[in-house]
Amino acid sequence: WETYSPVVNMLSVRLLLAIAHIHGLETKSIDFVLAFPQAEIDIDIWMEIPEGMEPLGDEATCRKYMLKLNKSLYGLKQASHNWYEKLKTLLLEWSFKASQIDPCIFIKEGMIVLVYVNDCIIVSDSQARINMLVPSLKNGKEKFILTKEDTIDKFLGIIITQLDDKRYELSQPLLIQRIIN
Fold it and tell me: Among residues 88, 114, 126, 160, which is most buried (max CB within 10 A)?
């Protein structure tokens, strides 16, 4: 009956982005498309026939029928938990270890994966490692539907600007403007 899903600490996001830029590590950002429906449901969930669907019969007959969900839907209280567990299980199978400090960070030799709901940052000492991981997510047993972006100059509204050889600036102008407004 667990419905809780951890969310990465923004301090972890900023720290990982800063470390990646300072040390010149390879990075990739990926976004899982419609993540929640890609996760299985852990219990039977039944729903009324949605408005607009017209099964055969009169209205009284229609009220007798229910639909059984086969996949998670957005809006289910456990949808984010099911998605997180599916991704976590796969990463653990691939020899990643969950951080003891932040459960949304997964570490393996030469690589770190940071999970923020359906977005991930991959940081590695080698582009080859990233190039192996991303196709494995798409073409492996889970066949995740995802998009990949090139570099991480902007992630979750955090913009990284290189000021000079040794200095970087992390800013969140959209968040700041929203707070001011």
Answer: 114
Please compute, for residue 156, the number of CA atoms within 13 A of its CA located in the half-sphere on the CB side. Answer: 18
Q: Give the pLDDT means over successive 10-residue stretches in the chain (181 positions).
A: 80 86 87 87 82 68 76 85 92 95 95 91 93 90 80 70 76 85 92
Of 28, 26, 18, nearest in space to 162 by CA: 18
Which residues are within 8 A (CB) of 107 and not within 5 positions of it... i.e. 6 or more apart? 96, 97, 99, 113
Instruction: Tell me the pTM.
Output: 0.80
What pLDDT shows up at residue 98? 95
Please check whether residue 35 is in contact with residue 83, taking contact to mean a CB–CB distance below 8 angstroms.
yes
In angstroms, rounded to a whole number, what is the distance separating the alpha carbons of residues 26 and 23? 9
Tracing tokens 């990233």 back to the chain, one arrives at: 130
Residue 96, pLDDT score: 97
